[in-house]
């Protein structure tokens, strides 16, 4: 399921990242890598603040939807 | 031997802080990703032989944003002797992802492990020497902020730069096999030392690298075959294979040298839960910004900015000022007020008037006093108070200069040039420096503690509704200081059309140089009402929103803004050094301009407004309505007549405002010699002044910003479109406000332009609500647009 389905405080493992090559590559360089853990720090109207590899990343709903957990 | 070192690392890893510590240079540092948008060079403090280049922060060398392109092109094209890779130890795993890429460039790399103090504070541990062995490159612990470990870092970097590049790290067998095939297939197409990096990029199908290589179909076929064989073998696409193997390598390397305590929510997470809370986020943001602008520009007791600027304008660049706590200022105000009133009466009576007008610049009210002989006689008895009797009085600069000029018996014309031209014009601008420094200081604090990037996140949801992303908000916030860095900050925006739109609209935000205009009119006509400054920001933001909606409907801008992704740095207490540096850097560029472009143009303006043809002869004019400037202004003033400021002074001020916005106030002070606020209050009606303010806030910014637009657009057509759009928009809004607003307040009667205003309103509404372009949107990335 997409990352947007996780609620505040929940944790998941990245299964797959979809979308165009350059977006995928960018998300991976930010630390979203298959098998890695992501947890949701906060959720505001679908936009997320997540924790991945010890950094906080803010994602809009559209971007978060490309990360499947 | 000179050595060239490059400083590379993730955004917000402390690169610029390290750069400043090493070179003693004063680059801006902020706690948000993307502060450094251009590379900067500096010579080392300790060793002038070493040149250090600060690259913008990047997450990888597969360019996604323009900053990544800048960094990558430098490393590939310039080939520095060594790379200092600054790594944020608090998120070492992600940071090392870039390290694995840098290590493949065939350039010696030294890792500077920053923020180790924070790691220790969290109870975690990283063994630097073990890490160094695992990676096969030197790793030096440093604290960029405290300046610790810098000598060791430089020593390591110097040794490394003279040595060889790190050895190659092996990928899995299928990948290595494919890389070998690519290398032999491409032969000598690669520059020496970079064969492996290019081979990996080709394997990843990096468009930029592929575009540069001219390959025969046969070679292309063999390369493609090798890649797809590998993809088949590993059941993934090439790029993912490389990325995953890099992360696997990092995890393995870190396993033995990192000890981490599992912790729950960090302090930053807890703050974020409140600050970005669904309900509280916006109110918190509004309160924070209101506080910032009230302290800098409001009229409260705590409005330090206003107080300091009042002192600078009325004291330092006015008659003079009392040393604080030495004077009975109330008694002085009363005595000087009484004298001023008497003086006004005397002047009015001697000019044969029956009424005198007393302007109170505190309240903005003008009192009318009936003047007859008795009042006149009475006024003559009021003594001129001597400030020295009331406390320690320091005369203002104009007074000192005037005394000096009189003492040396200076020629009248020269003394007018110095006093009215230079001191008046430049002083009018410099008087606003304290206020601006306070504003910059507060923004620098918000930036340094990490709140700014949260604002981008909060605003994304709102900005998205009218076609901009939250990332557009950062350029706009920077633009409240100065539009030039604001326009440059648009480089963090990935999508070309979002970036163009941001560049076109960033200029609407009232920058520091527009503040004096707001302050002048708020003081002269609106009794220092804080509503005026607030409304200026509101109008700026509204102009951005309206433009966003309107522009989005055109084909060139159609389509969803790029999705928002941004790293949120950890909150930390503001560093005094960083905050002051950032404040000073912005403030200094303002002061510098006062000393250069504004100085020159005030001299030119002084001449143009002081000379002309009077009584058939050319010379200094008695009445500046006969000056050259007045003639030029009068000739084109009709353009602005429908906006309510069709007098030559306002026209000229608007035009000089295109050179630099600070010019508006200094031009006014040259065109209205004497009491500026009082003269402005007489020359403008309320609504006319407001329309003037709006036009000057919204029309094309200064030369410097136009230059920045040209650089960023990199295209003459788009540059002119942006400038034309801003001026046109300013004219339309200003006209509507003057005509319709004036009709409501009764200051303007119904005329032809009222009809024009109504038509324009209907046109605007149509542009806002019409169905936009719905065809295939052109999803051009900024990176590609610049290359094209």
Written account of the structure:
Chain A has 69 residues and is an alpha+beta fold. Chain A has a single domain, classed as Ferrous iron transport protein A (FeoA) (SH3 type barrels, Roll). Chain A is 19% helix and 38% strand. Chain A contains 2 helices and 6 strands, in the order ββαβββαβ. Chain A has helices spanning 21-29, 61-64; strands at 11-13, 16-17, 37-44, 47-52, 55-59, 67-68. In chain A, the strands form 2 sheets. A 4-stranded antiparallel beta sheet of chain A has the order 1-3-4-5. Chain A is globular, with a radius of gyration of 10 Å. Chain A starts with 10 loop residues before the first strand and ends with a strand. The model of chain A has no long low-confidence stretch (mean pLDDT 86). Chain B has 788 residues and is α/β, with parallel strands linked by helices. Among the domains of chain B are: 3-162, 3-Layer(aba) Sandwich (Rossmann fold); 173-259, Helix Hairpins; 337-395, no CATH class. In chain B, a hairpin with a 4-residue loop joins strand 10 and strand 11 (365-370). Mean pLDDT of chain B is 84; it is low at 31-35.
Helix share bin of chain B: 55-70%
CATH architecture grouping of the domain at 3-162 in chain B:
3-Layer(aba) Sandwich
How big is the Rg of chain A? Answer: 10 Å
Strand percentage of chain A lies at: 35-45%
Approximately how much beta-strand content do the residues of chain B carry? 5-15%
Say what the CATH topology of the domain at 3-162 in chain B is: Rossmann fold
CATH architectural name of chain A:
Roll
The figure for the number of domains of chain A is 1
Give the N-terminus to C-terminus distance of chain A in angstroms.
6 Å
Mean pLDDT of chain B: 84
Query: What is the count of DSSP helices of chain A, taking H or I runs of 4+ residues?
Result: 2
């Amino acid at each position: 399921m997409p990352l947007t389905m996780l609620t505040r405080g929940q944790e998941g493992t990245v299964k797959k990242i979809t979308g165009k090559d350059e977006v995928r590559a960018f998300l991976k360089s930010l630390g979203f890598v298959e098998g890695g853990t992501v947890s949701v720090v906060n959720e505001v109207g679908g936009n997320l603040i997540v924790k991945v590899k010890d950094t906080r990343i803010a994602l809009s709903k559209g971007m978060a939807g490309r990360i499947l957990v | 031997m000179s050595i060239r070192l490059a400083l590379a690392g993730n955004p917000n890893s402390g690169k610029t802080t390290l750069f400043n510590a090493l070179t003693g240079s004063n680059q801006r540092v902020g706690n948000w990703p993307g502060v450094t948008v251009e590379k900067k060079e500096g010579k080392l403090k300790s060793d002038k032989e070493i040149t250090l280049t600060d690259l913008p922060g990047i997450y990888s060398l597969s360019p996604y944003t323009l900053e990544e392109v800048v960094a990558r092109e430098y490393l590939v094209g310039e080939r520095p002797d060594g790379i200092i890779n600054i790594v944020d130890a608090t998120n070492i795993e992600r940071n090392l992802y870039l390290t694995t890429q840098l290590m493949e460039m065939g350039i010696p790399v030294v890792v500077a492990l920053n923020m180790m103090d924070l790691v220790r504070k969290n109870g975690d541990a990283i063994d630097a020497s073990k890490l160094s062995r695992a990676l096969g490159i030197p790793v030096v612990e440093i604290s960029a902020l405290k300046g610790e470990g810098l000598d060791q870092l430089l020593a390591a970097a110097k040794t490394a730069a003279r040595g060889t590049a790190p050895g190659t790290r092996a990928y899995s067998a299928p990948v290595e096999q494919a890389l070998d095939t690519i290398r032999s297939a491409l032969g000598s197409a690669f520059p020496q030392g970079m064969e492996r990096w290019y081979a990996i990029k080709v394997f990843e199908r990096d468009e930029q690298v592929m575009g540069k290589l001219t390959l025969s179909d046969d070679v292309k076929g063999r390369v493609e075959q090798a890649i797809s064989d590998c993809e088949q073998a590993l059941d993934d696409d090439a790029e993912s294979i490389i990325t995953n193997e890099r992360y696997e390598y990092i995890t393995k390397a870190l396993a033995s040298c990192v000890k981490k305590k599992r912790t729950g929510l960090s302090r930053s997470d807890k703050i974020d839960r409140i600050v970005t809370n669904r309900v509280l986020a916006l109110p918190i943001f509004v309160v924070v910004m209101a506080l910032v602008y009230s302290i800098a520009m409001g009229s409260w007791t705590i409005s330090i900015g206003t107080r300091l600027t009042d002192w600078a304008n009325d004291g330092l660049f006015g008659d003079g000022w009392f040393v604080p706590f030495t004077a009975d200022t109330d008694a002085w105000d009363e005595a000087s007020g009484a004298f001023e009133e008497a003086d006004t009466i005397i002047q009015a009576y001697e000019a044969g008037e029956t009424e005198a007008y007393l302007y109170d610049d505190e309240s903005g009210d003008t009192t009318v006093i009936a003047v007859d002989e008795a009042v006149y006689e009475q006024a003559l008895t009021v003594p001129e108070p001597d400030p020295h009797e009331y406390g320690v009085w320091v005369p203002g600069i104009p007074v000192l200069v005037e005394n000096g000029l009189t003492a040396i018996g200076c020629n009248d014309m020269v003394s007018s040039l110095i006093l009215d031209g230079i001191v008046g014009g430049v002083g009018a601008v410099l008087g606003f420096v304290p206020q601006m420094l306070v504003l910059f200081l507060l923004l620098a604090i918000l930036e340094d503690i990490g709140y700014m990037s949260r604002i981008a996140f909060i605003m994304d949801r709102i900005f998205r509704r009218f076609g901009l992303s939250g990332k557009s908000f950062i350029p706009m916030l920077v633009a409240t200081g100065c539009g030039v860095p604001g326009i440059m900050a648009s480089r963090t925006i990935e999508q070309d059309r979002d970036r163009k739109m941001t560049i076109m609209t960033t200029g609407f935000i009232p920058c520091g140089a527009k503040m004096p205009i707001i302050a002048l009119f708020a003081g002269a006509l609106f009794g220092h009402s804080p509503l005026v400054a607030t409304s200026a920001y509101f109008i700026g933001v509204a102009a951005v929103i309206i433009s966003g909606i309107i522009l989005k409907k055109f084909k060139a801008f159609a389509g969803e803004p790029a999705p928002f992704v941004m790293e949120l740095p950890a909150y930390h207490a503001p560093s005094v050094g960083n905050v002051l540096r950032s404040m000073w850097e912005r403030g200094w560029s303002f002061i510098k301009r006062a000393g250069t472009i504004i100085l020159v143009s005030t001299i030119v303006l002084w001449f143009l407004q002081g000379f002309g043809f009077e009584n058939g002869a050319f010379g200094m004019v008695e009445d500046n309505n006969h000056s050259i400037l007045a003639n030029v202004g009068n000739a084109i003033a009709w353009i602005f007549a429908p906006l309510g400021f069709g007098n030559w002074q306002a026209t000229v001020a608007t035009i000089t405002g295109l050179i630099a916005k600070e010019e508006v106030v200094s031009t006014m002070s040259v065109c209205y010699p004497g009491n500026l606020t009082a003269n402005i209050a007489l020359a403008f009606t309320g609504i006319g002044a407001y329309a003037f303010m709006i036009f000057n806030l919204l029309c094309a910014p200064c030369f410097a910003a136009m230059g920045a637009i040209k650089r960023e657009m990199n295209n003459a057509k788009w540059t002119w479109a942006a400038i034309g759009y801003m001026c046109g928009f300013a004219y339309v809004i200003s006209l509507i406000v003057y005509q319709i607003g004036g009709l409501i307040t009764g200051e303007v009667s119904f005329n032809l332009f009222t009809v024009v205003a109504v038509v324009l309103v209907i046109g605007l509404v149509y542009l806002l609500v019409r169905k936009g372009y719905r065809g295939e949107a052109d999803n051009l990335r900024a990176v590609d647009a610049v290359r094209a």
